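Rather than argue in generalities, we have chosen a single entry, letters for residues, whole numbers for local backbone shapes, without further comment.
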Amino acid sequence: MLFNIQRYSTHDGPGIRTVVFLKGCSLGCRWCQNPESRARGQDVLFDERLCLTGCDLCPQAAPHAISRADGALVIARGKLTTDDMATLTDCCPTQALSVCGETQSIDAIMHKVLRDKPFYDRSGGGITLSGGEPFMQPDIAEQLLCRSKEAGIHTAVESCLHVPWKYIEPSINHLDLLLADLKHVDAQRFKQWTDGSAERVMDNFRKLAARNVEMTIRVPLIPDFNADEQSIRAIADFAADELGVKAIHFLPYHTLGINKYKLLNIPYLAAHQPLDAPELLQFAEQYASQKGMTAWIRG
């Protein structure tokens, strides 16, 4: 189950890449910019601004879950079935209602990936698995990475590492680069803001370091969560001293994904303004450099 295949990406690993976005994530980060990626199954997104008054195509397609009240479309998402999702796909002429998520075979995905191999070869690029959390579909991740390596394609995975180790280990031998989030090392803060276990993530990091997996750590800097000098020090210390990581990227918080929460009819619980802290970003870059890491501020 995936929700996008993005060709010609230049921000998800070296060179020109094809990014395969797999659905499913075990975290519930307040600031998540891809909330449509969390569920393992399909989601319905609805933009009322595009909805045509008087159109009943969606209620006719799924009458037990979609209706109109005073002219407005009412969607009972919990009542939608897999058959409903299939019927609703491409049902709306204005794309006010859209279905996020589709099942594709490994062969179909690899066909799309292989089309751009000349670009990978010239630029040092390749395939990147992203999400959601790609290791939530461990068999699919392993097969895609293995097939790509057999085709001579550089492989990368973007991961939050909040999965059992047994989900990660089968892919290691087919993985050239791991782009992994290190959101916090404080267990209580991590739990409060992500609904997850910092120790699970840190333990996976330790195991990957022991296997000499090439890693770039990514740190999303989130107001009131980890966008402070104490948190940055603790994260950088763990990355440098315990893991021996050589590259770290700091990603200042932005709000580009807020509208998706409206489309999914769920509340947005993080700050509504981007991070504006140039002195803190300068500190993060300098402190990471002092710890022997190459640091970048990534927009």
Summary: The longest helix spans residues 229-242. The longest strand covers residues 2-9.
